[in-house]
Fold this sequence. Notes:
The chain has 213 residues and is an alpha/beta fold. The chain has two domains: 57 residues, Helicase, Ruva Protein, domain 3, CATH 1.10.8; 133 residues, 3-Layer(aba) Sandwich (Dna Topoisomerase Vi A Subunit, Chain: A, domain 2). It is built from eight helices and seven strands.
Amino acid sequence: xxxxxxxxxxxxxxxxxxxVNEFSQLPGVGKKTALRFVLHVLKKDTDExxxxxxxxxxxxxxxxxCKNCFNISDKEICDICNNPSRDAKMVCxxxxxxxxxxxxxxxxxxxxxxxxxxxISPMEGIGPSNLTVEQLVAKIQQNEVQEIIMALPxxxxxxxxxxxxxxxxxxxxxxVSTIARGIAVGDELExxxxxxxxxxxxxxxxxxxxxxx
Length: 213
């Protein structure tokens, strides 16, 4: 029986071995690819490596979450929420920052966002208390929000989260819509093309239309 490649690696340096182990913790990166990354870094000038290391440290130490929408930001309030041309009365609810980026790339949405930080998934131990649902409710209570747009994945978990939020904000009697199903059932927003995603935002429909009567 042949051993996997990483078991046969014979590192001549503990420093290289440690670096390979660190790189291999990244999603989708195996030991072989990690070694290629490490060898590439070794060829770089010291200034370039220091810049790379500084970028990683700043990523961990200086990034924060916007106090208004919970999007990842360099400041307490992100640039989207700080932009006076954005409509604060229209809030698009998304799973994470990747969905914000996907919708922003369409250039068609002019409201603000609310990032949940995930979706309800009992299998993964993620419940409503692990998300920013209560902060969304508080935002509706405090501001003049007129419409909530549900832009969560078209999956069972996404639909469960949609329904939970819908029931939580129903007492406030505001418009609740969901993106049109140009996005196929089971698809993630980040993988949708910009035209399809943009149209699904433009031609959104009332969420109540999708509930089983």
